Amino acid sequence: ETIHRKTEGNPFFMLMFLRSLYDEKLLQYNFGAMKWTWDDDAVNSKIVTQNVASVLVNKMNRLQGGTQRMLMIGSCLGATFRLSAVIEVMKNLSRVEMRDS
After folding, report:
1. Which residues pair with residue 28 across a beta bridge?
2. 48: phi then psi, degrees, rounded to nearest 5
3. Phi/psi of residue 88, each to 5°?
4. Which of 67, 64, 101, 57 is nearest to 87 (CA)?
5. Whole-number mean pLDDT of the chain?
6. What is the pLDDT of residues 72-90, one digit of tens each?
7. Which of 37, 50, 71, 73 counts the most CB atoms within 10 A of its CB?
8. Cβ–Cβ under 8 Å, residues 43 and 26
9. d(CA 24, CA 32)
10. Contact 21, 43 (CB under 8 A)
């Protein structure tokens, strides 16, 4: 009920909201009781972003710096790219950065 209300029933936002609760350890599976548990107050106070771009930016901001950098380089290579191409660009960038410092 709470999740439906906070996400207005939008399946994408419901999934993202549940995933964020799990990532932030506000939603946990209790293996002893064999059920999901959560902190009602924390879940109720959590704000749901109703913007896909904001959801993705928040998710990407939680990634490690190196992973963020790889994704930035990959995005410059196009909608699809090969990991080997990203690695090659990163090697070349590292050489240039070392030379310029």
Report:
1. 37
2. -100, 125
3. -65, -45
4. 67
5. 84
6. 899 898 888 899 999 999 8
7. 73
8. yes
9. 21
10. yes
